[in-house]
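Long-time lurker. I teach an intro course on protein structure, and each term I like to show students one example going from raw sequence to a predicted 3D structure in token notation. This year I'd like something fresh instead of my usual example. Would anyone be willing to generate the tokens for the chain below so I can use it in lecture? Attribution to the forum is fine with me.
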Amino acid sequence: MTPSRQLLLIRKRKKIQLQLLVTIIVVLNVFMLILIVWCMMGDVIHKIQRVKETKRDKKRPRLNNLNALIIESDVACRSELRMNRDTFYVLCEMVRDIGGLTGSRNMSLEEIVAMFLYTLSHKFKNRTVGNYFIRSGETVSRNFHRCLLAILKLHKHLLKKPTPIAEDCEDSRWKYFKVMSNLFIILS
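-- Reply from a regular --
Happy to contribute to a lecture. Here you go:
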């Protein structure tokens, strides 16, 4: 074999080896790309399944929390909502009949009123109340304002109009107010 032929064979082998190397690199890159896409799709599918499960499974704990507050015991209702169960149901009836508040497709009237009272009784923020009732802060805020407007419509039924105290009143509870009003007149 001549040296030029040997050089040609060596160049041909190197060219074939280079093509083989390029082919292997391309195949590995395609394989890595397929693996990455497969992992991402699995992650997306897992998230979709997890969201569907949590939406379905949230209803039971919500009902359990509501039952623990207003159905199971008067002690829990009094400590958490600051009223007993009978008063709570009377308030719910008044809010529905007079205030015009109704439950929605996803939340009952009792749950709306319970969230309202729970927020007021503990001075909690929307996020905290939402965590307890397994609702979003926006849902808590929206229903709090709806319930507040309905309860404000009850002011004629719940608040007593004050009557003035006569000057000749002999009741001992009012004598201090009489002195204070006289003092106010003198100072003015």
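Some talking points for your students: The radius of gyration is 37 Å. The longest helix spans residues 3-57.
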